[in-house]
Amino acid sequence: MNIDAELVSALLTEQFPRFAQLPVRPVARQGWDNRTFRLGDDLSVRLPSAEGYAAAVEKEDRALRFLDGRLPVAVPAVVALGAPGPGYPFPWSVRRWLPGETVAAASTLDQVALAKDVGGMLAALRSLPTDAGAAAGRHSFYRGSHPSAYSDQVQTALRTLGADVDVPTCERIWLTATTSVWESEPVWFHGDIAVGNLLVRDGRLAAVIDFGTCGIGDPACDLVLAWTHFHGEARRVFREAAGLDDATWRRARGWALWKSLVVLSGQSSPDEDDEHRRILAEVLADPVV
């Protein structure tokens, strides 16, 4: 399915004619689950790229309406919820465009300050009432569930990679990650705390975007930034600011291990610039706790 500016303009004309005269242009860095377009200067349009991601649209709409104004940083405000139309079979949304640049694109950042900001934001997210959230499950691609949901993929990856990875260490980390559970009441999780979903302005965290995998459950999946991005002192500060017990951090290490293994073994998106080879090395070397 070709999701382009022409399709977006046609959907807007049919369903939201008040926006039809605004210019539509794709954003430079597209995500895997959705295609995003700028709509004029102040809005954006977000469309699921495949059927598997469509169920998240209405859930994300409810979550964002609840979370807006309740976190120490901004989230995308929902403007309108679109329906399937000619040439596009899924629900879609119009959001407020948030200014800033992603952590991935920012050239210079104080990583320790960023670690404190992100950790504090996650602590604030966990503190919120959960009535507006959806219990972790298929819609969140099992983020917020127990990491053992992906044990089959981990075992397949280790068989596929063989001597290319330190299998005994990977197995030990995975066993440790899957032998504890979240024992408190379920809490909010984002589900994809990654450098492409964190916006900064003037060197500080300003917004969090892409709540498509959010829900209510175990927050361990939100801690993987400790291995995917932070190092040294910033990693320690993130651990301190985010809080949570050692067992949750061990499950978080398992989530980071799973992602790198499935990418490196070809079960997921390709490993660009050997990023997941580097992340796997970080996961194997540092338990954080």
TrEMBL record:
Cited InterPro entries: AGP_Transferase (IPR051678), Aminoglycoside_PTrfase (IPR002575), Kinase-like_dom_sf (IPR011009)
Cross-referenced Gene3D superfamilies? 3.90.1200.10, Phosphorylase Kinase, domain 1 (3.30.200.20)
Pfam families per the UniProt record, alphabetical: APH
User: What top-level branch of life does the organism fall under?
Assistant: Bacteria
> What are the Aminoglycoside phosphotransferase domain coordinates in residue numbering?
29-255
Name this protein carries in UniProt: Aminoglycoside phosphotransferase family protein
Question: Can you name the source organism?
Answer: Microbacterium jejuense
